[in-house]
Amino acid sequence: MTRWILTHPDALAEGDRLQLKTMLANCPELDALAGHVHSFAHMLTELQGHQLPAWIEAVTTTDLHSLQRFARHLERDLDAVTAGLSQPWNSGVVEGHVKDQDAQAPDVRPRRLRAPPQARPALLLKRLFRTHRR
Predict the structure, then answer these.
(1) Other beta carbons within 10 Å of 16
(2) Do 46 and 18 form a contact (C-beta atoms < 8 A)?
């Protein structure tokens, strides 16, 4: 059911859309939650951050405590959240590239010297046993 609420209605299969409609008709709290989720998603996808204060006000008047808590956390840095919901760019791609660069950095730690396999009898026996079993 969570996936149905979080998925754009046009992207739902017809059967899923009908089941969601039935569930929402039978539970007013769930219907209210779905409405707030869809309005937040619209605000996010259409870059309408200026609507955030009205959305927060609407959420705080409901009995949906977890959604009220989410709204209160958004208010902690309202300017940054509003800017994030209004601007067309993000740092998602940058974050991935920085991580890739870290992974490609040369390893400058000294390697542990290991004796060749011939000098390690247990490893040599293991390799011989493996070749004779085939």
Answers:
(1) 15
(2) no
DSSP single-letter state for residue 109:
S
- At 106, give phi and psi (nearest 5°): -65, 145
Cβ-contact 67, 82 below 8 angstroms: no
Contact indicator for 74, 52 with CB cutoff of 8 Å: yes
Tell me the pLDDT tens digit for each residue of 98-113. Answer: 555 555 666 555 566 5
pLDDT average per 10 residues of sequence, the chain (134 residues): 86 92 93 94 91 95 92 92 84 57 58 56 59 50
Tell me the whole-structure pTM to 2 decimals.
Answer: 0.63
Residue pair 53/78 in contact (Cβ under 8 Å)? The answer is yes
User: CA 7 from chain center: how many Å?
Assistant: 14
Neighbours of 43 (CB within 10 A): 19
Residue at token pair 């000098």: 119
Q: How far apart are CA 104 and CA 101, in angstroms?
A: 5
Q: What is the residue extent of each domain of the chain?
A: 2-86
29: Cα separation from own chain's centroid:
25
